[in-house]
Amino acid sequence: MRYAYLGPQGTFTEAALRTIPGAAEAEHVPLSTVPAVLDALRSDKVDGAVVALENSVEGSVPTTLDELATGDQLQIVAEIHIPVSFALLVRPGTSFGDIKTVSSHPIAQPQCRRWLAEHVPDAEWRAATSNAEAAQHVADGHYDAALAGSFAAARYGLDVLAEDIHDVADAVTRFIELRRPCAPPPPTGMDRTTVVAFIGEDHPGALLEILNEFSMRGINLTLIQSRPTGAGLGSYLFWMDFEGHVQDARVGEALMGLRRVVADVRYLGSYARADQVRPEIRRGTHDTDFTEAAAWLTSIRSGHA
Amino acid sequence: MRYAYLGPQGTFTEAALRTIPGAAEAEHVPLSTVPAVLDALRSDKVDGAVVALENSVEGSVPTTLDELATGDQLQIVAEIHIPVSFALLVRPGTSFGDIKTVSSHPIAQPQCRRWLAEHVPDAEWRAATSNAEAAQHVADGHYDAALAGSFAAARYGLDVLAEDIHDVADAVTRFIELRRPCAPPPPTGMDRTTVVAFIGEDHPGALLEILNEFSMRGINLTLIQSRPTGAGLGSYLFWMDFEGHVQDARVGEALMGLRRVVADVRYLGSYARADQVRPEIRRGTHDTDFTEAAAWLTSIRSGHA
Amino acid sequence: MRYAYLGPQGTFTEAALRTIPGAAEAEHVPLSTVPAVLDALRSDKVDGAVVALENSVEGSVPTTLDELATGDQLQIVAEIHIPVSFALLVRPGTSFGDIKTVSSHPIAQPQCRRWLAEHVPDAEWRAATSNAEAAQHVADGHYDAALAGSFAAARYGLDVLAEDIHDVADAVTRFIELRRPCAPPPPTGMDRTTVVAFIGEDHPGALLEILNEFSMRGINLTLIQSRPTGAGLGSYLFWMDFEGHVQDARVGEALMGLRRVVADVRYLGSYARADQVRPEIRRGTHDTDFTEAAAWLTSIRSGHA
Amino acid sequence: MRYAYLGPQGTFTEAALRTIPGAAEAEHVPLSTVPAVLDALRSDKVDGAVVALENSVEGSVPTTLDELATGDQLQIVAEIHIPVSFALLVRPGTSFGDIKTVSSHPIAQPQCRRWLAEHVPDAEWRAATSNAEAAQHVADGHYDAALAGSFAAARYGLDVLAEDIHDVADAVTRFIELRRPCAPPPPTGMDRTTVVAFIGEDHPGALLEILNEFSMRGINLTLIQSRPTGAGLGSYLFWMDFEGHVQDARVGEALMGLRRVVADVRYLGSYARADQVRPEIRRGTHDTDFTEAAAWLTSIRSGHA
């Protein structure tokens, strides 16, 4: 088993990958961009992939959304939640007063903005392609400090000057494990399903229609994110995560409704929720309600009511 | 073939019955109340029945609605539209100035209210159990004039003093042909379907949910009528006629949705529209759209997307 | 003070009228039809009027609905609930075995159908213009028994052979007290408002839009009744009773929305509920929420946010 | 007049600022982050500010959205659309074959991904804090090429090796001009309004309710973007741009409805659309319809209907 992930070694994505059952025996392949990770999976060079999808402070990761919404189809088979908590890594001997520059991936900076303003108010921030690259820049002497996972310190010969850095308590990053299209893992009763809906032409009421397909079946959305499709301002796709599994009748019905309403819809997987929240199932939307309604329809169509 | 209908002979219902293909060779059984007509069909004493359902001036016929909504299930297999047009029947020799009393079924009076106020302003109106009974009362000398179909004059030895009486132009009475539960007649593309939905307990938003099941599939209602269920003010059933046939995918889906949403639903039939209006079918709601969506769902559930 | 009501004396409507505060000192004017009652009020011949609006077994009274929906505007200022309970009135000496015919107003018959089938299974039913007229016919010897209020027995010299007759327990008739247009009685917190909405042209989604105006403001409907407008099958008005008073902000907003959505709307009054049910007011729909929102809008329009 | 903008000099934001009437005579203050630009305006150090809001390829700019949704309130008074078109800047003498590294702001890279893969397939991309900084890095010899506006070449002593670079035709970046809270510019009939709605507690149906407030008044959304509020996965704010001006009655009504439905709403301004699209105003939602409905409500409340 080979897994691609957004490297280099020492990133939070690698930490997420290590939580997957069986990951210890698998081969880990760090790649430098999200498209490279997904392409490795699409082209059969690896068997699975892990990328970040969403961060409770900064929101969804645009590149992951865009790359999964287009190109050859991939499938989410699991999600992993990792608490947001950075360390400030420095060369041995560096103290707070020495820090003139702090580097990190652009997504890390706003999550530590207030902490930085308080502890290193005069330091300038510098963008890096990853937090691990920022650590490498510190090791090389280009910058004075890096925001990264504390697990990255040893790899780059740096010291941890401060730990557990985050502006917002309980912030979490959500990673996803991807495979090539496959049968979804069996329902657990605490599942999530992800789809991408494309709104064609000028259809301003489409979002209301989409939400109605879910609402009328008592299905709560857990994430909705609009993204431009690249076809001009005003043309969007909607990434939607919602409660339930594609095998649930209410989810299957909502998906068929969605399929008919929008220009296109891409199914990205059903998988167990990392937060193990069990949804409330509204009256009339249990699997047995759908089975009973279908049997009734058959009977009235045949005249044996 | 035996047909029961709301008699006596000489009513508009008999006129409607005569329009059914093959009615000329069938036996016609006049009965004195709508419940009697329906019970004859339910107990196998006749093979079919004809009753009035709706009148464009006076609205739905409450007894027909109530009797079909409850009791053993029956099925509408056809509808017949008959123009509303009364004659004023009198004993030979009677002139307008002689008329002190006019009798008719209560449903006829409001349809001729303005005409009566203009032509016989001083006459008092008297209720009769049917227009034909009103004619009989005139023949017996109890009343001076009857509102009835002109075809009833000969039967009761009366003269037609005025014809084509109606306050509203183009008014129509809608009759239905009933059978015991059976496979519906095949779709014509210009069909109507009738159901009765029962709202259980206190569910004030139920009507909005019901209408949504139709609206989201582009199905127009042609009649909605609330009726008390007899379980106290505020408890209702809804009689609904809508465009389409139970064999249409969009209708089948709406019916299954309705079945899950409401306390109970009774299917009363799909049949060709007498007015031959062809519905506009909204994008995404053709049979092929449903078939394609179902095939897609099967593919993603199995992993062969 | 003069009140018109649907007579003759001895009807349930008169019983309802007697419950109005001050009615004992007022003059009571029995008239023979609902239009006559309403016209007396419209033409200033009386100061108030009482008519039946709705019956929990038989539903709304079509004539009352139609006559109030059109013609010069009148206003409901109060409602009165009277339990449905008939007496079987006969000439002295008549026993059950003697009864060949039973007469009543057509609305009374279906409310006692099961009782009649059980107690006088062989009697035929005859329509009368009112229950009181039926009693007169019994006194005159035309019929053997009448269904009417027991209070009518003395007036017509009849005996009460059976009392408290009704097929459905707890059935109630709802009467309304009418005035010429006036300021509504002050809100009690347990109020009802009545409007009639006219759907113009072919606007199949109009009912959904109307219900939405109420639903989005948390206002429950307590009665919805469709009636043909007389302009052909498929053209309807909707009589709607709902929780709340025209002075309530949420009701005022819903009414303005309704006014903009439909072809026409007629306000028929706000008045205290006879059943004294206090509505649950949804979050965000109290008067103070509307006042606060309006103040905020003023501030952002002026730039003083 | 002093304007702050996201610098350094030579960015697309500066190009947008230069299009504002009167900008030529104003002082331009480049600052290094969006928060710094907004804080300069909030603290009265400048009179106006220009930042990027949305890009038709990459979507909304998260920092701009987050910084305007929180902190002291600011107001959008105009929008500016600038076509997306980059130049590849190199040191004099550099040819395509020499390019091993290309640097740019992270937002520029995905907009040129395909062009880069085709023209410099072997070059690695490096993040810079701005495109202008990337140009500086090229001038300093750290990197070989920068993606930036061609207007930046002269400032950094670089050559334009390629121009008009963009993967998607007709892509546009949308900039906004900000002021401290003020009366909005007068309606033009082709306006846009921006608000941010905060969904409190667990209210899964809130988005549907919000969209309904707009939909029922015929107001089309032109952008909807969800952003986490930082209070855990699942807690969101919605940035919404829609057709119309706060002075329009339908917009005012929708905003009041929104105010009552959600936990909080922030008004961010009404301003002329840069694309000069005139909205279709639905029947019943013109200013005169609202005025007429309000007058009618006043009349029925007072009894002078």
UniProtKB/TrEMBL annotation, chains A, B, C, D:
Pfam families: ACT, PDT
The organism of origin for this protein: Actinomadura barringtoniae
Highest taxon above the source species: Bacteria
GO cellular component terms listed in the entry, alphabetical order: cytoplasm
Domain called ACT: residue spans: 195-270
Residue ranges occupied by any Prephenate dehydratase domain in the UniProt entry: 2-180
Site, Essential for prephenate dehydratase activity: residue positions: T173
Alphabetic keyword roster: Amino-acid biosynthesis, Aromatic amino acid biosynthesis, Lyase, Phenylalanine biosynthesis
E.C. designation(s): 4.2.1.51
An example molecular function term from Gene Ontology annotations: prephenate dehydratase activity
Keyword Amino-acid biosynthesis: yes
Species classification: Bacteria, Bacillati, Actinomycetota, Actinomycetes, Streptosporangiales
Gene: pheA
Family matches, as SUPFAM superfamilies: ACT-like, Periplasmic binding protein-like II
Summary of subunit composition and partner proteins: Homodimer.
Pathway(s) per entry: Amino-acid biosynthesis; L-phenylalanine biosynthesis; phenylpyruvate from prephenate: step 1/1
Catalysed reaction equations from the record: prephenate + H(+) = 3-phenylpyruvate + CO2 + H2O
Name of this protein: Prephenate dehydratase
GO biological process, any: L-phenylalanine biosynthetic process
CDD domains in the cross-refs: ACT_CM-PDT, PBP2_Aa-PDT_like
InterPro entries documented for this protein: ACT-like_dom_sf, ACT_dom, Chor_mutase/pphenate_deHydtase, Preph_deHydtase, Preph_deHydtase_CS
